[in-house]
Amino acid sequence: MAVNDMTKLTLGPIAYHWSTQTRRDFYARVADEAPIDEVYLGEVICSKRAPFHEADLPATIERLERGGKTVILSSLAEVMLKRERKATADLAAMEAPGIEINNAAGLFARGKRPHRIGPFMNAYNEATIAWMAGRGATHVCLPTEMPAPAIAAAAAAARELGLGVEVQVFGRASLAVSARCYHARAHGRTKDNCQFVCEEDADGMPLRTTDDRPILRVNGIQTQSESYIDLLPEAGQMIVNGVTHFRLMPQAVDMVAVATTFRNVLDGTHSLIDGEQALRKLCDGISFSNGFYHGQAGYRRIAAAAAN
Amino acid sequence: MSLAELICPAGTPAALRTAVDAGADAVYCGFQDATNARNFPGLNFTPDELAASVAYAHDKGTKVLLALNTYPPAGKVDLWRQAADTGALLGVDAFIVADMGVADYIARTHPGVRLHLSVQAAASSPEAIRYYCENFAVKRVVLPRILTIPEIREIRKEIPCEIETFIFGNHGLMVEGRCSLTNYLTGQSTNMDGVCSPASDVEYKRHTDGSMSSQLAGFTIDCFGADEKAGYPTICKGRYTAPHRSEPYYAFEEPISLNLSRLLPDLVEAGVHAFKIEGRQRSKSYVRGVVSAFRQAVDDIRAGREANIADLVALTEGQKQTQGAFETKKWR
Amino acid sequence: MSAGDDTLPRAADLGTSVLARLSCVIVQPVLTRVVRRVAKQHPSLFSRLGPHQGTDFVIDPVELPFALHLRPDPQALVFRAVARNAAPEAGATIRGKFMLLLELVDSEEDGDAAFFSRDLEVTGDTEAVVRLRNALDDVDGSIAEETAGMFGPAGRAILARLRRAYPT
């Protein structure tokens, strides 16, 4: 793969309800050791979880920035309740750090001040991206399910407008969000009475079909893919097509090593084959997928047409 | 009091005429392509069929709303623009949209045609709704089926547009316009292709004990015992196991339909302008039955009489009905 | 809705007898006339079938001694009665009580509802069945009435008697 110092690695917001201590340790390691350029913080999935982590946020931001990372705060994907509306408005009012918006309520509150567009914002095409750019968007994370030709067309349009273009290249895909909490439901509770049972599943609660095939993961109100997306083999093509940022979603594996693997392959210091082998070892027992990118069923793993 | 318009589904020209004749105030429909979220085989309208259907509906004083409520992937936006141009030419009364690029195009190119914000846009707060109203002059929002009636009443006070809510039909669990479950198993996208559990990937298997399993792209979604009622083969209505749930359970929702017939007066009082009946994929028989029943109910409410709605449970998924989030937030 | 929750009778043993073969011979001329007439009256039906004009549908009215084979190809329309053991390999099979099937053809009954209640069974190519259902649903009026009408007052009387015999 060509040497590409310019392509940035980002770390997406933690989707799960990891404990405060786990988060502290996680971000301390990321700050010190991970070859990651930009880190997204904040609760995107469930507004009930946010109070657990808010107190730590200033220290985490400071820690990451000291480690040379750019920090961006991500807004909630679902905004319905008063506390969610307030959290979104408060975030949109911030001058620094940068913010990533995941709900139209955030766009409303932000007005024309600069912001990033998150993967839940459905920026599927050049017309929408142009509209958003005209309203202050500086960067767009494309929806995870987009196939390669659409990514290429969207990236070309976004670059023309001077926007950064981001694609998730690692981790479980977000497949759906709901008003109902499926973690609570699995335990015979409701969302209001959930007792934060989602904390038990650091990598999501696995669902299997009745004939015992792993299929999905439940993370509170979110449904995720069973497989981890791995687009390391496709990264070279995406760079050619204008993608500027690769997003790694935090999973319950050694994310510093995952980031290092991606960086090494992107920089050309390691071969793709070595990189893929390393990822396989790091994510033991997890299936990888790249079907969305190839316009096929998302769970599928399509052999790369031309590895280089 | 609001007008309480009745908005009815039309999957084919014959279904459209059926809905009009049964008393629909407006019908909604789409073209035979990815520009709408019911892009199902053998369903929907050619431009010629839409032209004739608009004429039929307008002749009887019924409005026609054109669903352009999917998200064009980059490089294919022209298909949505052309659909909008055709719809405007044929005189549809409103476009139902979700994508900002599509909304922006219509607002600029066809400012004379009303824009309705599709449930696929998932605007569930006053701020989100106002974003679309202020930027694209949206005249009506179709609310996601996740809000309680008191929450709808509060939203109504803070937005400058009309509210449409679903009152009957398929009970979508996931936030609309944010669901890639179908694409994960089949390679066809709900947002970009307008499909949900496409029939081409669905297979039913009969077993010797009388049970029937439904599969999507080879994944078993559910297995119905000989005496059990069935549902759609959608991933969000399937049965699965979890580490502490060794017996298969409905992890998301059981096969069930929304039926708000008992809540209509409360919805009117909360400021809902229009009632939407789901089911463009259903038959004329369904359209006739559901539309006439709700026509009668809405007329009763308008006249200040108590509404007495016919029993529609036979038409519901799993032959079960719910008032979902509208009744209690415990549903969440 | 069809009355009763009794499960569909097992049809396999029904369709192999001499009676089955005899019945097929008797009804075949009627079927041919019916399908030709429907095709002529409702040409738009075929475009909704799309790629499934060439699909072999087996329509299986569980209580009748024979099944029906439909291939809705406008160039070479097939609609024939077949003994169950002589039915072609089906692209899609639709099973249910005869009256339910008749009502589905006429959109007097909702296919999804009949499926939810388990009165209707679909196996094989689901898309083919969905297309056929949508194509038939776009036909105005009653195909059953039209068919009965082809046979004059006697035909209509038979249809009326049939409907009375099956309380719905």
Oligomeric state of this protein: heterotrimer
Give the strand order of the largest sheet of chain A, numbering strands 1, 2, ... along the chain.
1-2-3-4-5-6-7-11
CATH topology of chain A: TIM Barrel
SSE arrangement of chain B, N to C: EHEHEHEHEHEHEHHEEEEEEHEHEH
Low-confidence spans of chain A: pLDDT under 50, at least 5 residues?
none
According to CATH, what is the class of chain A? Answer: Alpha Beta
Largest sheet of chain B: 8 strands, parallel, barrel
Question: Could you please describe the fold and organization of this structure?
Answer:
By secondary structure, chain A is α/β, with parallel strands linked by helices. Chain A has helices at 20-33, 50-54, 57-66, 82-92, 104-110, 126-134, 148-160, 182-186, 235-240, 255-267, 272-282, and strands at 8-11, 38-41, 70-74, 98-101, 115-117, 137-141, 164-177, 205-208, 214-219, 222-230, 245-248, 288-289. In chain A, helix 1 runs parallel beside helix 3 and helix 10 (255-267) packs antiparallel against helix 11 (272-282). The mean pLDDT of chain A is 95. Chain B is α/β, with parallel strands linked by helices and 332 residues long. In chain B, 32% of the residues lie in helices and 21% in strands. Chain B is built from eleven helices and 15 strands. In chain B, helix 1 (13-21) packs parallel to helix 2 (47-59). The longest helix of chain B is centred in the last third of the chain and has 19 residues, at 284-302. Chain C is α+β, with helices and mostly antiparallel strands and 168 residues long. Chain C has one domain: Nonspecific Lipid-transfer Protein, Chain A, CATH 3.30.1050. The termini of chain C are close together. The model of chain C is unreliable at 1-7 (pLDDT under 50). At the A-B interface, helix 4, helix 5, helix 6, helix 7 and strand 7 of A face helix 4, helix 5, helix 7, strand 10 and strand 11 of B.
